[in-house]
Design a protein that fits this description.
Pfam families: Kinase-PPPase (PF03618). The chain is of the alpha/beta class. The chain is built from 10 helices and 8 strands. It has helices at residues 15-25, 46-59, 70-82, 92-102, 112-132, 140-144, 157-165, 201-214, 226-243, 255-269; strands at residues 4-10, 35-40, 62-66, 87-89, 147-151, 171-175, 194-198, 246-249. The strands form 2 sheets. It has a 4-stranded parallel sheet with strand order 2-1-3-4, with helices on both faces. A 4-stranded parallel sheet has the order 6-5-7-8, with helices on both faces. It is elongated and about 85 Å long.
């Protein structure tokens, strides 16, 4: 079987063209053993295309291309006929069909799929980060986080972390308890990344009582007593004062509202 030389031409990475080419080649016995594939990624001008087409003509190569630009596709179609080079357009026919079906013109912007993939994986990474560094379980996350949330129990630290993670931000949160020294990392992190979450004692008293009842416990436990809450808030104020971070009041605020407030404050700093 003769050797097959295949040029993969793309305005992005060229992965799609190569995968389709390999899938097609695999249908021919032993063809994959005699195939030489070469990628030409990030092609965005007719000058580049001209060089590739001439090289393909010299080496008797077959061109497979995935180009979103109508002008570049038209050029390669015309020039490969001129140079008697076999060429297959993987993207054009589908885009033309979609244009007719949707009644709108394509963006013709290269690499959009990869941008969407990158965005998705950043979100997944941020969500995994929020889970791993939730509730102060590993203080090392404090210095790696985009945002650090600090607060006493039942101030929405975890739901806020998850909400912000869906905005592709890595968030660590740290609970503050008077009997436990806060991690030293809190005092090493950039204060502009840190936000203290505070709530009115009366509201917190109500929330904690409801929490205890939901767990089947007495709502008279020390955890929900107003004097205990004042003690925790005093400890919180001492810690955030030492950190030097901004404090956000979460009283009667939905998670989305608090998150947007934090994002606005953060964006105004950078």
């Amino acid at each position: 079987m003769k050797q097959l030389r295949l040029f993969i031409v793309s305005d992005s990475v060229g992965e799609t063209g190569e995968l389709v080419a390999k899938a097609a080649i695999s249908q021919y016995l032993y063809a994959d053993q005699n195939a030489v594939l070469k990628r030409f990624p990030y092609i965005d001008s007719v000058d580049h295309l001209q060089e590739i087409i001439k090289l393909a003509a010299q080496q008797n190569a077959f061109i497979v291309y995935t180009l979103v630009s109508h002008d570049l596709r038209s050029y390669i179609k015309k020039e490969t006929i001129k140079y008697k080079v076999t060429a297959v357009d993987l993207m054009g026919p589908l885009m033309d069909a979609l244009e007719r079906e949707l009644g709108s013109v394509p963006l013709e912007e290269a690499g959009l799929v990869r941008k969407l993939d990158d965005d998705y994986f950043k979100k997944v990474e941020a969500i995994e980060f929020a889970v791993k560094y939730d509730d102060g379980r590993d203080p090392r996350g404090i210095l790696m986080a985009d945002i650090v949330l600090v607060g006493i129990s039942r101030t929405s630290k975890t739901p806020l972390s998850q909400y912000l993670a869906h905005k592709r931000l890595k968030v660590a949160n740290v609970p503050l308890v008077p009997e436990v020294d806060p991690p030293e990392e809190l005092f090493k992190v950039d204060p502009s990344k840190c936000f203290g979450l505070v709530i009115s004692p009366e509201k917190l008293n109500h929330i904690r009582k409801e929490r205890l009842i939901a767990l089947g416990l007495s709502d008279d436990a020390n955890y929900a007593r107003i004097n205990r809450i004042h003690e925790e808030i005093a400890h919180f104020e001492k810690v955030v004062g030492r950190i030097g971070c901004e404090v956000v009041d979460v009283t009667n605020r939905a998670v989305e509202e608090t998150a947007n407030l934090i994002l606005n404050k953060r964006n105004n700093r950078f």
